[in-house]
Each structure stands twice: as C-alpha cells, then as structure tokens.
Queue: 4 jobs
Job 1
Amino acid sequence: MEMLDTDQVPAGDRFAFWREINARLWAPYDVQCDRELARDFQAHVGVSAFGPVEATLMTSVPHTVRRTPKLIRQSDPGMFKISCTVRGTARVARDDTYSELPAGDMAFYDPSTPYVAGLAPDSPAHRLLLLRFPRTALHLPQRQLRELNGVRIPGKRGVGALASQFFLGLADHLHELEPADTARLATVTLDVLTEALATALDVTDALPAHVRRRALRARVHAFVRAHLGDRDLTPAMIASAHHISVRYLHKLFEEEELTVAGSIRERRLEQCRRELADPLLATRPVAAIAARWGFGGPTQFGQAFRRRYGVSPSRFRGSSAPASECAETREPCADD
C-alpha cells in the first residue's frame, strides 16, 4: 500500500500539497477549506490497486472539493468513483442541494460532470473509502450511470446495506491485502459495485446472472464477517437475511473451498487466533475469546482450534499456567 501524508511537508505547505495529491490520485479539483484548518492541514491516504480498481483510504480534516466545468475541460480521467463513509459525515451536492452521508452511506461520482463533495465540520477527522475504476468496468450503460452523479446511496437498508458492509470490511482489511488477493478481489468489488448501482437505477434485471450471483456471494461473506460473534449465525439466518432459500445459499458456495458452515467456523477461528496472539489481550480468558466470536462453549472451541491448528488454544498463546488462569476466572479451560 502506498502511503501519502501531509506531515511529509512543512505546516504552511500542507494544504497546497493536499491539492496536488487530489489531482494526482483522482482529478484536478477546486479544493476549499476553513482558513484556520488550512494553516496546518492534516490528511493522509493509503492507496492500493487491485486489477482495474484503485482503492484509497483517506483520513482528513473537513474540506470541500468542486469539480468545475473549467477543470473538466482541462482533464477528464475517464473514470468513475464511489465513496463510502467509514467514520464521520461526508457531504455531496446535487442540484445545489446537499445530502449528508453518515458512516456506511455511499455516493457515486462522475468526474466528467460537475459536482461538489466534502466532509462536514461536525468532526475533526473523517475517514472515507474511495474506489476509482474505468467507466467501461461495469455492466451498466454509462449514460444511465451519469444520472447517479452526486446521488447518495443509503447504507442502512436493502442492497445498499449489504454493499456497505462489504466496503466497510474492505476498508478494515485494505492494509492486509496480498498480491494473491488482488485478481479475485477486483472481480468481487466490481460485481458488488455493479449490483449496488443497478439497484439505485432500478435495472437489476438487466444484469448478467453470473454478476448477480458473484455479488450476492460477496455480500454473504460481508454479512458473515459482520455477525461472526452471533451464536445464532447459521445458514438459515443468512438465507433469511438475503431473501433466498437455504438450498440456494448452499448452491452459491459450491464454487467455494468451504461450505457455508465451514466458512463461518474458519473465520471465527481466525479471529480467535488473532486475539490469542495479541499480547494486549494476554489476560483475557481463552473461554471469553471463544464466546466473543460465537463459539458455543470452551470444549467445542478447544476441539475446533486443535483440529485446525494442531495445538490447543492455551499452548498457542504460550501461557505458562493456563490451568491456574482458568481457575482464577472460575471458567473451564478450553483445552479440557
């Protein structure tokens, strides 16, 4: 991941440096900021590219960008862009009317068309995930997509909510991406984008079946990640949340390495292993970690962990006295 930070330059030059970053990463903008904030402007971005998709995780103080007709005549990047608010509140203007975009909400942008976007002054630092991709990358007519320029896509209901979960999960794990992840992630990201935008345009029936299927599978994975700690997370619950049958859910996973239940178990074990390896959580009982990630009991967890990693949870953690730790918390050891 490429990192760019305004701290790289003296305080008085940071806002000008941020204008340069905007032009380099996206397109030339008229960037405006409160005078006090501009004196010591603070922003940093991490940029990752996977296939035709460029993902930028941006943290910044409030400011506004304008894509004006004059700037459009100077440069047209031939790209579309979508934002997802990760923290704070973003803003987007369409026909001189501003919409607020709290965490989870998305907005679509066409840099060949004028628009205004920004970050609200209600927080000292906001975080956005910005995805940029070629206009030809989506299975949707460009003329129709331009109708969405500056349109808010709510992330609290319907397909918007499921797409939002996927993008928020991507923001959380962007720094972990390996080169082997990029090809598959590019396809999945574009499928999710296509379905979310097709829903906003009310043209989902026109999407190819394989695009709808892959997008649905990606949303299911995002739903599983968001509900890992829920002991009631079952194939039936997942199917109900996505308005499909359990049979169809299992069919979706026929192309995956793991079944639905196997995928849930694997992700839970990964989270438990991460927390067991964290020195800051060394005093947290093994059974508490298991319960936090949805395991029904310490014995069930201990057996699953040993089968997956070949060692008990307490031995993996490297505890010198796991038995006494369990006794102090009056909880059964996960190894028993």
Job 2
Amino acid sequence: MIIQQRNQEELVLSEWGFLPVDQTNLRDDEANGLFRAAEHAARELKLPEGAVLNRVVGGLRAGQVCGVISHRGRSLEILPKIDGTGTESRLSLVRMLSVAYDLRVSEGELAQLQTQRKTLLELLIGLFARRLSHAMKGGLQRQYIPHEEDLPFLRGSLDIARQLSRRPVAPTLLMCRFDELSENTPINRLLKATALRLFRVCKSSNTRRELQIILDSFHSIAHTNNPLSERIHLDRSAAAFSALIPLARLLLSGDWQNTTSGRSAGTALLFPMNILFEQYITKRAQQTVGREIVRKQHSKHHALKNQLFQLRPDLVFEYGDRPIILDTKWKQLDRTDPKRLGVSQSDIYQMLAYGHSYTTAQQKPRLVLLYPHHADLSAPEGVLRQWSVTGSDLPLSIATVDISKDRSGSDWVEFFSNVAPNRKPVVFE
C-alpha cells in the first residue's frame, strides 16, 4: 500500500507495497523510468531482477529493498513494512543504518529528524550538512604534509642524494625536504567530495545553502577523483570530524548508485533489508554480549564431509559446550497460523543443517530464528515458540525483535538474555 504522497515529485511506498499509476499523478512513462532506474540499481547491487521494483499491470510493486530511487525529478521512497507511520518507519530505518554503518546518530538527532518531513536521502544529507557545519566551527583539519622542493635557501633538511645529482643542472638551488602545515588533508578531500556530490542531488533549499557555505570554505582543498581511497588517519586533529567519516563513506559508497543508463538518468540510495537486518542484529549482539563471544558469518563447518557446501550462519554465540546458532530472517510471521507462525520449511531445513553440522560429542548447539516483530502477532517480542528437533532434542527457538523500539544498553542485555541466553532453555510446544 501507499504510505503517503508527499508532493508532485516525491512518493512514499511501503515495502512490498503497490503504487498504482492512475491514483498518484504518476504517468506511465514516469513509472517506466523509475522501474528502469530500479533495474539498473539492482544490477549494481548484485540483486536479482525485480528486487527493488516490479512493473506490474496498473503500476509498480516494491520488493524487499528500502531507500530512495529517483528518475528525472520524480522520487520514490520505499520504507520498511513495520508498525507505525511513515515517519516512524523512516526513523527506524535511520536507526538501523546508524548501528549497521556506525553513523552514531544520537536519539537527540533522531528526535530532530522526526520533525522534518523529508525522504531518507534528504534526512541523511541534512544530517551530514549540520554535522559538518558544526565541526567546522573550530576550523578545518590541518596536518603537516611532507614536501620536496628546490629552493634558493635551505628549508627543513637537505636531500643530499638529489643535491649531488641535480647540482650540475641547478647549481644555485638547494634540494629541500620539509613539512608544511596544510588544510589539504585526506579527511578534508573526502568531506569536500561528499559535500559536492550531495549539493548536486539535494532538493532542500536550506540544506543546499548550508552545503554551498561549506563548499566555499573548502575552496583551497584539492579535488579528488577517488575519495573513498583517501587514507584517513584519525588523530587528535581529526577528533571533531571523526563521526562524519562513516556517514561520508556511506553517501559515497557502492550503496549510493548512479542509475544513469543510456538516456535514462536517476539516482538511488538503497538497502536490501535482509542484509541490513542481519548487520543491525550482529552489531547489537556484539556490542551487548561481546565480539569475543559473538561471531558473524561463522564458516567453520560444511554440509558434507568432503568439505563441500560451506555453512555460514549469521551469528554464533560461542557459549562453551552449548553454542547458540542464530539466523536473522527479514520476513513477517503470520499470526493466522498459530502452530507454525508462517515459518517456512526452507528456514527450518537450513537450521537443521546447522544443528547437525555443529553437533559433536562435546557440543550440543541451540538454534534461534529471529524475525522482525509486528503488532498483529498479539504477543510481546522475544521467544514466541520453543520447539525440539526430532531425533536430537536440539532446541529451536522462534523469536522476534521490535526494531522500532528506542532501547538502552540494559534493554539490549535483557533482550539477548531472553532470546540467546547462556543457559539451557525450557522447551515448550
């Protein structure tokens, strides 16, 4: 379904939602343009065809990818299908991105974003502009940069080897090596490149004005053709800008796609939700339980004895002789199926393969499938079902997490102590 139609240029759609052409002032050629841009972005992200948008009879249908896609001035924002309004869904998405990409968006910043009726892209651009403007109040970062120059007087130290080889050519010059305090640093080149790129796509007049002031201050900074390759060294001189680096890299990275193809021009900032959900839970688990215990994309085992078909569970909690294997699934459970909750057979088979391969005489794993929570389940988040695997008595938990919640560190401790406890769970049907 359509969450909201903001104005003539911007449309907002929920994940898996349908956008009819005849009810949104969206012309057929515009729908085709958005679809072509989505196809191009899906290829760039190495996603299957139709993962972002599908062209169906009468309109467009969203897939399991959230973010913003635009084509010739028309913008379509796809938000996660979770409880709450479009604004709440957008903020939940920002919260997940903040954790997954280490953006460090504070709850105060989220509260400020909540009052702004902007797309995800405009929110992130505005966040970057405000953070950079604030950081620049103390001046741009400066570092001592090594230089080599031929001078009529000695500066720094003399490069004796060069002096001897160049003396017949330039007998009156000294070959000097010295350090010069400069604002042309890798961080400043990265930030300038980000501000320049965002200025070209930003629609908010206030944010564009702020970015223009920033760019004016960066006039002496050299242009870089590959800002993501700049070698950033975070020291005391970069402290004010450190929180900006992950955001700048996100806005310049492969997730930010130029969807220009032939005569079709567009942009997209898209995030496959199954991957983002996995990254979000992984970061929270490692922050809460510890990186030395929580291992991501564990790859110690294979499905076959001849080392074929490597198994990669999303998370393994290494709790001695009773490890927990947890896999995240960005799917909605079905309360109308009280016995199975709509859990797919393929997901169960996958967990059985994990359980069988991780079971040894000394180690009996526990299995957890974790889904996003929603209000229709008529039960609080956490463990909803606790099953036992036939023939092995390995416990298999079906659990949910409410991603719309604002949680403290102690709240996450309580959540993981319930869903992935360091103790043997009680099995119930």
Job 3
Amino acid sequence: MRLADFIDANVEPILSAAEAFAATMLPAASHLDAVALRDHMPMILTAVAKDLRSAQTRSERLAKSLGQQPRIHGAPETAAQIHALLRAKAGFDISQLVAEYRALRASVLSLWFEGGKAGDADTQEDLIRFNEAIDQAVAESVAYFTAEMDRWRHVFLGVLGHDLRGPLNSILLTAELLSKMTTEAPLERHTVRLIQSGKRMKTLLDDLLDFSRASLGLGLGIHRTTIDLTSVCIEEVELLRTALPDAEIGFRSEGETTGSFDGSRVREALGNLVSNAARYGTKQTAIDVALVGDDRQVRLSVSNAGESIPTENMQALFEPLRRGRPSDELAETANLGLGLFIVKEIARAHAGEITVTSSSGTTVFTLVLPQSAPD
C-alpha cells in the first residue's frame, strides 16, 4: 500500500495520536476539547495525501520543502496556516507548534512501518515526498504563527502607548502648573527637569504609536494643508538650535516650497534627521539643512560630516529598532531607534521617498515630497 492510501485508510488512529500529543502542550491545551486539539490536522493530512499523489518535478519538490511551493488547493489560506493562527490564539508557543508536526510525522511513519511496509523503491519515494510535504506545512505554519504573534505584539504596544499618554499628560500639566507657582530656584530647577523628562517620554510614546501603526499596515496618518515649507522648517530649526545648543545648524531655502503637506509631520521628519546628524556626526561641525523646491516636488536634505556609512548598511538604517553607535559615547541613548523608520513612513504617507548617500566623510539624507497629493 502506498503511503497516500495508508494515510486515507488510517486517519483516525493517526489523529488520535496527534490529539493525545497536543493535549500534553500545557498550559495552552488545558482548556481545549477533543475537536480543538485536533483542529486542522484532518485537513493537513488530506492535503499531504493529495500532495503525495500529485506529479512534481525535482525543483518543485525542493521549493515545497522550503515552504515556497504554491498552495495545494485554491483556498485563501492553507490548513497549516489556519492551524497556526488558531494555535497562536490558543496560547501555544512556536516550539509547541513545531512539536505537533514532529509528532504527526512520527505517528504516520511508525504506524506505516508497523503494518509491515517493505523498504522498496516506492517506499523510499513516498518517504521523501511525505517529509517534503510535512516540511512545507511546517514552513507555512511557522510563517503565519510568527506573523500573528508580531501583529498582537504591535497591538499591545499601540494600546500601551495610547493608555500611557493620559497619565503622562496629567504629569506634564501638573509640573507646568508647579513651575508657574514657584519662584524658588531649587524647586524651579526640579520642575524644569520634570517637564523636560515628561516631554521626552511623550516623544518616545508618540514614536512607539507611529511604529505600531506602521507595523500593523495602517500607515501614518497625515493631514494635508497648503503651507509654505520654508516657514515650517525655519520654525523647527530654531527649536532644534535651542534643544541642541552644541550643534551648529544652518538652513537655506530656494525655489517653490509651497504645496500640500502635513506640516507637523514634515517638522517631525526634519527634527529626527537633524537629531540623528547631531548624534552620529562629527562634533563641532555644521549640520546643513537645505530645502529646494520646483513645480513638482520639494527636496529637504540634511547633511553632516562624520564617518562614512558602508553601502551594505544603508538600507538597514531605515529598519525599526536599529541604532547606530553615537560618535560621542556620552551622547544621549534614551531613544528607541525609530527616528529614521518614522521618517521613511512620513515620506511614504506623502507618496515621497527618503534616500541617503555617504562618502568622503559626508552623509546626506534627502526627503523628497511631491508638491501635491497623488490623484
């Protein structure tokens, strides 16, 4: 009997063994009944048997074992993928999910060989094909399980960031009220420090919320108005000069810089780029901010002197939770490594782009934004 026929003829003992093993996955399995313990295992077995009967080339079989084979049936999601989603919601961890497939593989093969299957050429072929089909199911399950866990992690971060904003705003308002009420120098210093720390925390929470939205595929929300980016950038540069007193920040503007933008988001992007330049660039050298516009787009660039960035590291700069090494070891490190990621998302929300060049000791980040919203 070929393995596909054996699976069809022995579904119940195979599933009984799989159910018994799933019941040992504690504490997640403690609240699951027999149907939930089996979950999509019957459909997975059906898909495996169908796969064993299908004609496949060597390259197709290799792709299948790597989880790259087209789905066996035309459903939006495979049984292995749905099984992974439900196991994630039930509280299984990824090692328990993979262990289920190990147990399923062992159950099928042990029952097959207990039936006295001879080791002929067909047996070897079926063994290879069976393992490839199980590997495909594992790859599909792991990918979906990981994506589901990441999604819930981002939801948690978003909820946490949102819920913390209320108490933090109360702290800031109270600190600002105390600052206005006191005229004693020691108390004033303490309240100023409290306000500065609170504002720093608010910035971190805002970054966390933006990261969560982007990671969930929601993108950053923007509100376009017709504004002159020159005045917007001048205001932000003045604030940055106050916040970064040790940095020399120059600004120049030319061309047509009035268009449809979210001024607040552009200021946020500029602030992140200049702060990044101050943190990682060579100290006591100027940071140059340039805004150049025409009738199609504006280009906002921030350049600074410093060690050149290796070409192979440039794309990673815009990945979330990545931080470089500050040029000054004493520089502030209380950041989440989200600044350049958020700049990229701001550019994307405007249908623009962010690029970076770095050579001969000069690094330039350029934010390119269209003058108007795309049709």
Job 4
Amino acid sequence: MPDELIVADTAGASAVHAMHGGADVARWKCLARRMGLAGTWEAIEWASLPPGAVCGEHRHTRTEELYFVISGEGEILLNDVAHHIRPGHLVVNGLGTRHQFRNLGDEDLNWLVIEVFGPDTARTLVGASTIPEGTS
C-alpha cells in the first residue's frame, strides 16, 4: 500500500477571539490555499466553535463558501433565516450572503470551509478563458 500524503492537519490552529464580532474563542486553520492547482478555488479551511460560541454575522464579496459540518450541532443564519445544522450537512453560502454561526450543542461545532472565487475575482486572478461565458 502506498504511503499517505498529508498536506495539512488541524494541529496548531489559531485561536480567534470574537470571530467576526461574535462571542468566545473559535479555532481556525487554513488547510490548503491554491497550491499549484488550476481551479478557481481560494482555500480549504477548518473552523471550530466551542459550546455557546458565535461567529458574528458577516458577508464575503470576493468568495463563495461551502460549509461541511463534521461534528457538533448549531445554527447558521443565512440572510436572517435560521437553519439547524448537524454532521453531514452541506451549507452553500453564495456571494454576498449574510451569514452567522452559533453553536447550540454541548460539544465543539466543527466544519470544513471550501472557498471558491466569485466570477469577477476568478476572471481577474485566473483569466477570462477559464470562466464559462454567461457566468456573472
């Protein structure tokens, strides 16, 4: 069996106080950032909120995000609409969507973040030839 290739893990994650104006101390680590690949993605990250913690409401104007919940239970507000989240859920957070995480459980809420460029950013950084026509 071939050896495994480990690019990154969650060891050494940063402690983020009041993430995006939220409450408590979250943990965050970038696992990969456009490492020589040709796709229009920005990064893959890991985030964690302890019980009762909140990642404050914010929006991204340059990237869209996909959140895959690994463990814990919580709530995400998307444009003021609350959605219960638990392991196995995938949340699609489109360009400009206001969002906020809240850990409602009694264990850490952990999720992966896959950040992809919005069309304008992709055209600027990657080049118009890689973005399908009619994409805005």
